[in-house]
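Rotation project, supervised by the postdoc (A.L.). Task for the rotation student: set up a whole-complex structure prediction and record inputs and outputs verbatim in this book. Inputs entered:
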Amino acid sequence: MKAPDHRYSTFALDVHWASKLPPDAEMAEHIEECARCRSYIDGLRVLGALPIPVVPAAAVAPPKRTMRHRPWLLAAAGLVAIAGAALWKRGLDRGHRDDAEKAGYVATKSAPAAQVLVRRAGQTSVWDGRSPLRPGDALAVRVACESMRRVSILVPSAASWTRLSEGACPAQEPLPFTLVVDAQPGEERLAVVFSRTALDDAAARRASDRTTRSADVWTLVLVFAKSIGAP
Amino acid sequence: MAAQDDARVVMAWLYRTCTRVAIDVLRDRRRSVPLSPGDQASGCGVDAEVALEARSTLARMFTSTPDDEIEVAILCRVDGLTHPEAAEVMGVSERTVRRLLDRFDTRARAVEKEESP
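Outputs recorded:
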């Protein structure tokens, strides 16, 4: 099998998909050979098949400034998703797998577990569960799902929790998102909800609230201290 | 061919708009928006290591860097667009893209030097 020798940006794949035209010969051959691009196109097909949400009229007449950006936040989130989803795939696998394997996972035997990878100043290390994070640190999460099949990631929001991602448990790779630590004082929290079947938003929030641990749902809440003044 | 051109125009507008909105949101919140669902959600043109480094750098430089430099860094380094694609999205020349990236890199080096012990 020939290795893909041409790289296609997400933009090029988006344009190809949005045009609804068959790809030219070179791109068709590339997509056939390149699992990453093929998977991306498949993802677009799945997204394209979803119904377009209907926004109630009341929601599009925003008197408040805080509401003005809301419709765009979804679009922005989508872009950030496209932009950031593969960040860890090579960078972390490339030189830091050994560190990760050495450090292992923190969990009881056979329980689902999560491992946080911290990238700071060009170096990636496994978070030890105690060390404070610094502004600018980039975080990725690697999971061992054991008997669970799905994993959701949530962060605290004003009212409850907001789900950032949901998907099938990856074999080894970190979950396809990154967090960058801000300079705001206070702790950061992250809920990792493992489940046998896909959870809806409400169920995921409930599991995060209660730190549910059962045969079907297993929740870990990670709390990160921050060192704001650190160099 | 017309469909392809239309798709390029729409997609360029979408990238430009979303990038600028994302910059606004980040400036407001001073924190990056993490995310998102889906496995392998990028084309192979995205260099994961470069993208990660760029995000980390952007997070440190957000408040002190002009929007056009942030935008070009996001498009080229995080989203993995080529220079011609970034030029198309931003509505500028490739030369301008290169110039903005050079400025961004110079700024990043200065910040790194400042932060190094």
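Student's summary: Chain B has five helices and no strands.
Supervisor addendum: The CA atoms of residues 69 and 104 of chain B lie 6 Å apart.
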